[in-house]
Amino acid sequence: MATLDPEIAGGGIRRRREPSAEEAAGRGDAGCFGAEGHPGKKLIEPAVRRSAALRLIAERGYSQRRACGLIEVDPKTARREPVADAPEIRERLRALAGVRRRFG
User: Fold this and answer.
1) In this structure, is residue 25 part of a structural domain?
2) Beta-carbon contacts of residue 70 (< 8 Å; ≥ 6 apart)
3) What are phi and psi of 23, to 5 degrees?
4) Span 9-32, pLDDT tens digits
5) 37 found inside a domain
6) Is the torsion defined by CA of 91, 96, 98, 101 positive or negative?
7) Is the model's pTM score more than 0.70?
8) Residue 71 burial class via C-beta count within 10 angstroms: exposed 0-12, middle 13-18, buried 19 and up
9) 18 in a domain, yes or no?
10) How far is 15 from 52, CA to CA, in rounded Å?
């Protein structure tokens, strides 16, 4: 059954035309991020997440709980102090890995 147009012209009834297809099926905007642009790098490593949470706390004044929730990092990770690097231990491990390939 055709839809009737409320406007009657010339004593007859005009029928509405079927709307044309706008675009092909599927997502035409795949990969687009919108007006805000690309969100930036992914925060994968715990050290990067920790520094991002600490930056939110320092620069934006967020609480530790809120900053860690936004970054999705455990608050214990944000509180943890980084361990100082010990180059002599690192060299010893590299020497052992060179001698015993299975441990390297």
Assistant:
1) no
2) 53, 56, 62
3) -160, 170
4) 555 666 777 766 665 555 555 555
5) no
6) negative
7) no
8) buried
9) no
10) 61
Contact 54, 48 (CB under 8 A): no
Is 85 part of a structural domain of the chain? yes
How many domains does the structure of the chain reveal? 1
Indicate the residue type of 33. F
**How many CA atoms lie within 13 Å of 58's alpha carbon, on the beta-carbon side?**
7
Q: Could you tell me the CA-to-CA distances from 18 to 5, 21, 50 in Å, in that order?
A: 12, 9, 57
Q: What is the H or E stretch that residue 13 is in?
A: strand 12-15
Which residues span the domain enclosing 71?
Answer: 42-104
As a whole number, the mean pLDDT across the chain is 77
Band (pLDDT 50/70/90 cuts) for residue 88 is very high
